[in-house]
């Protein structure tokens, strides 16, 4: 029996799910091996009572999200977090920087949005996550590799290392040697260092790598004539809600 | 070995001639750096380059290659085609020519030669070119500043011409057909010697490489490793740009339909945390132990088997490492017991 | 551009697994199963010659490969046995296999125990937990050539009685005259009537002729130091104590670098080393 898969959205811009629809070459093959019972973005209807795999995009920003996540965890054998928001809080979690109510007031005026709002957080702050596809947005080939792990019942093997080695494979001239700060120094690899290869320093959308050495990274900024606080400032774009190890 | 003088303005014709039979890979400018890449126009060839970001090893041991395609259901190999194009690596410095000889020890090993490496190596023509040391170069420390085998043609710059050392039938054949050339004279050889002497004199610093295997064991618990471990980013850039690092990983990737897939070999690095991990633990959990292992293996482990150190002094890791960990600095620390600042 | 084909004999490509059929599966414990495998190709099977202590790469396409020591004796022709704990992707997928399924094998790899050299001597075999897997090959090999050896002593420790591997066979052997076999567990249950405590405790109960005894040892990394200390207390020579190491052997042929220990590679220089060699390997013990 094909595994029953649901795709859910919390607070996000749906960019990751759009990436899935963009996988025109493989999407039919994928649909041949799963039973896609619910896709919030593309189907009407309700979340079924039973399913095997839950793919979740977005950060948890309301009580309702928290309740949904807990229910999902009880139901699904495998929970897959896709995108920066779900994995590390991402852009929604920038709200953690200041007073939440003030921020809502500034952005939405008095409009009644986000009832039962909580401080935005990645989903692993609420429930255990089994598989991760990081990135903003996700990379379709990586999504397929992870989905294959899920379907085969194999362990998650999201890389824990940083970006520099894969950046070297592209033979990109290092941004530090050009007087710029690049978060590839501390960011989780797995995206083939795409932004640097296109001429833009890494902004850390895949999160701080578990194996990153932030202390040394700050010293490197100093040695390259940069303000070491710049590292932390840049990390605020996506990584506000991660506890940043020193 | 025999020799020819090839005028520099004959080189484009030589390249064009070789390109009729081989895919020519040569050093070219990329931004402020140089890279080895397929040559579209002989005019792009920059034989005056100092160093490329990556070595040419990817053309013989690619960073990713399919070892075989398989069917999951039958647990069976369905295809094991090997892509070994005829390629010419045009413009390798002596360090890089030597690095391939060090890789050969591992991959052409009599017991279990690696068929993928072997096929590519045999189909690859090597044309070396002389260089002048960059500030990061230290090939002289290991004696890899000269090369006497491992190339088909080696071009030593003697001004308006190259003093070409030719050491293979196919190299001789290509020179015969695609470069006018002329025979060497005593003056040419004198110019060659002069150039070699100038090259040796141009190294800026000396490294004391004496007794490294002993020091690596005797100072195994030295605090220098802790210090390097604190600096290391564990990013693996050093091994990625290293022309002698050969470690690899093998994993399976399934097609989207989950029925077939491929067994893939990719470069790996002993600097990655999970490199020495097993089911119930990790034998090199700390960055300090991994930095130490990299040097231990290069200057002693490999040497214990092949009687050479696994480094050619190309200086790529010196440039690639943002944390400023590099062989000259590590070797100095091993000698003195102190990491210089 | 030309392309060479490697579809020809598998011997030419050391990365290509040989198909083997699972001919029997025995549940040993809740975590460990004993698989009996038979290489399908006749010529490959006839050429498959190994020493006790060597390992194979078990290959499941779509999952990957894992190094597994051979548990059966070289004297058992045509079949090999692998004792496999469910502890990762490959071993987990193997546990889901059925009798008759096809898997892949590469090998045998590495250096085994010095069986020929051990002949004519007494042998002390010490195993902890899953470490019995490679030693089982040696034990069975000695068994099949029993008259060539002097006294044979086997010490085997497991955490609990239910984790003792090959328990039925060993319980029968406890009554044999030609093998001195002692089992011990760290945590007994109500059925256990044997020894309790670490395997090192059993050394008090054995007599060895230090000039005439070879030691062989395999178990979890933490055990080596203590067992070797006991063997040294009994005056066994450092170069007559043999240890088998577990590392992350991936290629099996000394190329991929994953099993490096000190200045050597476990897959080609080991997995069996004598203690003199092991002492000279950084990060080994």
Properties at a glance:
heterotrimer; A: 246 residues; alpha/beta; Rossmann fold; 2 domains; two-stranded antiparallel sheet; 7 strands; 13% strand; C: alpha/beta; Elongation Factor Tu (Ef-tu), domain 3; 7-stranded mixed beta sheet; 6-stranded antiparallel beta sheet; 21% helix
Broad CATH class of the largest domain in chain C: Alpha Beta
CATH topology of the largest domain in chain A: Rossmann fold
Query: What CATH architecture of the largest domain in chain A would you give?
Result: 3-Layer(aba) Sandwich
Q: For the report, how would you describe the main beta sheet of chain A?
A: 5 strands, parallel
Shape of chain C: globular
| N-to-C CA distance of chain A | 47 Å
Question: Mind sketching the topology for me?
Answer:
The complex is a heterotrimer of chains A (246), B (341) and C (285).
Chain A: E1 4-9, H1 15-21, H2 27-33, E2 35-39, E3 53-57, E4 60-62, H3 63-75, E5 78-82, H4 83-88, H5 100-108, E6 117-121, E7 131-133, H6 140-152, H7 164-169, H8 194-197, H9 214-223, H10 229-235
Parallel strand pairs in A: 1-2, 1-3, 3-5, 5-7
Antiparallel strand pairs in A: 4-6
Chain B: E1 2-7, H1 11-19, E2 23-30, E3 33-38, E4 64-71, E5 76-79, E6 81-83, E7 87-92, H2 94-107, H3 115-122, E8 124-129, E9 153-157, E10 161-166, H4 169-178, H5 186-201, H6 212-218, H7 223-231, H8 237-241, E11 248-254, E12 260-267, E13 277-278, E14 281-282, H9 287-306, H10 316-320, H11 327-336
Parallel strand pairs in B: 2-7, 7-8, 8-9
Antiparallel strand pairs in B: 1-10, 2-3, 4-5, 4-12, 9-10, 11-12, 13-14
Helix pairs in contact in B: 1-4, 6-9, 7-9
Chain C: E1 3-5, E2 18-27, E3 32-39, H1 42-47, E4 55-60, E5 64-69, E6 80-85, H2 89-95, E7 102-109, H3 115-118, E8 122-128, H4 132-144, E9 152-158, H5 167-173, E10 180-185, E11 195-196, E12 213-218, H6 221-233, E13 241-244, E14 260-261, E15 264-265, H7 266-269, E16 272-274, H8 275-279
Parallel strand pairs in C: 8-9, 8-12, 9-10, 10-11, 12-13
Antiparallel strand pairs in C: 2-3, 2-7, 3-6, 4-5, 4-7, 13-16, 14-15
In short:
The complex is a heterotrimer of chains A (246), B (341) and C (285). Chain A is of the alpha/beta class.
Q: Can you put this structure into words, describing what you see?
A:
The complex is a heterotrimer of chains A (246), B (341) and C (285). Chain A is of the alpha/beta class and 246 residues long. Chain A has ten helices and seven strands. The N and C termini of chain A lie far apart (47 Å). With 341 residues, chain B is α+β, with helices and mostly antiparallel strands. Chain B is 33% helix and 23% strand. In chain B, a hairpin with a 5-residue loop joins strand 11 and strand 12. Chain C has a seven-stranded mixed beta sheet, sandwiched between helices.
